[in-house]
Amino acid sequence: MSAPEDEEKLLPLVQRWPRASKFLLSGCAATVAELATFPLDLTKTRLQIQGEAALARLGDGARESAPYRGMVRTALGIAQEEGFLKLWQGVTPAIYRHIVYSGGRMVTYEHLREVVFGKGEDKHYPLWKSVIGGMMAGVVGQFLANPTDLVKVQMQMEGKRKLEGKPLRFRGVHHAFAKILAEGGVRGLWAGWVPNIQRAALVNMGDLTTYDTVKHYLVLNTPLEDNIMTHGLSSSLIGSHKATQ
Fold first, then answer.
1. TM spans, by residue (predicted)?
2. Residue 226 has what DSSP assignment?
3. Exposed site from 148, 177, 194, 237, fewest CB < 10 Å?
4. Exposed/middle/buried for 55, CB within 10 Å: 0-12, 13-18, 19+?
């Protein structure tokens, strides 16, 4: 075995497999943010489907019949009537979605920046490259995550069926995947992918451009180097508010 191969085996995993490490780091950061903010997403969805169901049944009298009003009262009502842990009901498909989406877009962006576009002579990544790279990374990340996004939406819609007194269609996340696959085939898992990637492209045009700007600032103005720690800090500064995306 050659000396370079021996030296490579002694390197930390984050240096031996930087892309995989960044995928896992982005996925973990997205998971933590999703767990922290999911109750807000759940209460927002519950308010939306409650209003739609009430309108369908009662028309103009829907407002007076609504059991929940406002985000705080909705969250308290769910915790008191259904149990505190029900505030995280349906979090599994959301976590799946964010691991695939966040990891996929960050790895794609890093690859585009380092391999496809490349940095300028001053080692700075030009703004126009950040914009194009961010849009392309958003497209790839959302396309990969579309099946998990679809299941997340379908599982959230189960709440509306329950309010309307209809039977539930899915027993869980894996049953939802299996049923969608059985009814629509592989293509069925990518239903609605076109508007999803269009939205993701616009979101990441700003999101990842900001990430690169923050990372470049940290490298130039702090003792931090361009490594996995700087990547994680930059991602947390611009990514935590995207958890309910």
1. none
2. S
3. 194
4. middle
